[in-house]
Structure formats: structure tokens, C-alpha cells
Amino acid sequence: MRNKKIRLFVGPMSRQVVDLAIEYSNSTGNVLAVIPSRRQIENTGGYVNNWTTKSFSSYVKSNSDTVMLVRDHAGPGQGQNSDDGLDSLAEDIACGFDVIHIDPWKKVASIEEGITKTHELIEYCCSISDNVKFEIGTEEAIFSYSSDDLDKIIMSLKKSLGKKFNRIEYAVIQSGVQISGTENIGNFDPRRLTKMVNVVKKHGLLSKEHNGDYLTFYQIQHRASLGLDSINIAPEFGVAQTRILLKSGLVPFEDAIQACREVNKFSKWIPDPVKDNPPERLIVEVSGHYCFAREPFASSVEKVREKLSSYLFSRFDEIHRAWE
Question: What SS3 state is found at 274?
Fold first, then answer.
């Protein structure tokens, strides 16, 4: 599995998205990775299908040999509660995650502090596992850095970790974009992306961009042509499933908006211009996936599986074609 380069890392926005990622990978031979955040799936639970880390990893492993398990944004303060993240890391390792994204950047104030915390967390993981691999760096919305900063991060870790540095596989590059509402916004900077990709390649790592949601085929193809190795896509798939459910008529809109307001997970996705009075349709689209395990969604999600499959398989194919 490791000998085949992975292009697409899929956010497990629902059990249906996970099932279809597995089905797609099994049927096409295209190796995918699923990337649960700590809030989605955790040793203490999560909002996706009520999976724990153990039950989720067992589910994926029992259904596919071609889907990798990659923890997204492991580290302090990344779960539902404020913590050091160590218990979560230990459970990820015990459950056989292939790669862990070491991300302390939410809780640091400088590049130097981020390097130190990254080193400490990698050392901790290596103290309990001889096999787990790592992803380093973070996305721009959490902590912005330049190509020179990224070079410093990698060089410092290479020096401090010694042979353990070889267990780092991916580094996160930044190109100036982020997700807001149901759009990919910001100012894409191809020169910045190219510089970061070259830094990552210089150190023998693979480059990965987060926030690949809502990009067109040509936008992804452009990144691939500049040397980008892979991309994360997550909320886009939850939004797509929510839209399909709403369009089906199986989920009454008034019930959907009530559920989304009660769960109250939409604020982080609402664009600033409408933050004080967000449209109800937008509230449901960006946060419906947080409610799939409850009504009015729970009894309807399987009924639109065929339409979701059609959308996801087409999108998965499109993304892989961008690298051909």
C-alpha cells in the first residue's frame, strides 16, 4: 500500500462517506486515506457515527486493505476538551493508524515553540511505536508560515530527531487559501506553493495541502503540475451529502434548521460578512453533517446512498485524473 502514492485524503464526514471511500478504493485500486479529526472520531467518542478510535479503525481495516488510516490534527487542544493530546495519540497508535498528523500549532506563539512541541510529540509517539509515520506542519487558518519557515521547521526536526526523522512522510504546504462557508477563498499564490513544494522535496518528504475543498479539476491539476503530491478534502463531502438530503425532500427543512441550531456547530464555517445573521440555508449546508446521527437526518441518510455514491465516485475520479 505504501508503494503507491496517495493523492486524496478524505474527511470521514459520515459513515456513508467512509463506506463509499472504501468501496471506491476497493473497486478501482486507487489508494485513499481517511483523515478523522479528534472532534469527529476520538478515543472518547465523536460526532461521526458515534465511532470511537477503536471501533472506527476496526471498521475500516475489516473492510479494506487499500484505505489508510491517518489522524488529522493530532495534538493539544484539538479535541472536544482542552488537553495535551497524549491519550489520543496513544490510542491512535494502539489502533494501528498508519500516519499521525502532529499539529501543536493551535497552541503555540512562534515557529520555535511549534518546532519544539512537534519534536516532543513525535518523540512521545516513537517511545511507544516503532512503526507509526508522521505528517508535520499545519494549515494557514491555524498558523501561517512561509517557505523559509517551513524549511526551518523541517531542518530543525531533522537535526533534533536524528534517525527518527525518517518516519516523517508528509509536510503541509500553504498556498494562501482557506474554507469559508461553502467556498474555497483567499488568494491562491502558485509561487508560494511551488517554493514550499520544493522545500518539502529537498528534504525527501511528500507535500500535502489541506483545504482542497471546492477546488475545480483545473485548480487541482494546476497544483499537481507545480509538484504538489496530495490534497485533503473534508467539509465539501459533508456539504454535498447534506444538499442531496435536502433536495430529496426526505428531510423537512424546518426540522433540519432546528437540529442544526440545537447542535450549534455552524459558527466556524459562516463567512464574516453574514456572521451576525447567517442565512438558514447556509447554516444547514455547513453543519448538517454534525447532525447525521440524529433526526431528522438519521432515518434518511441511507435512502440517498445511490446519489451520494454517484457524486463521490465522480469527484474521486476527477481528483485522481488531475495527477495523470
Answer: helix
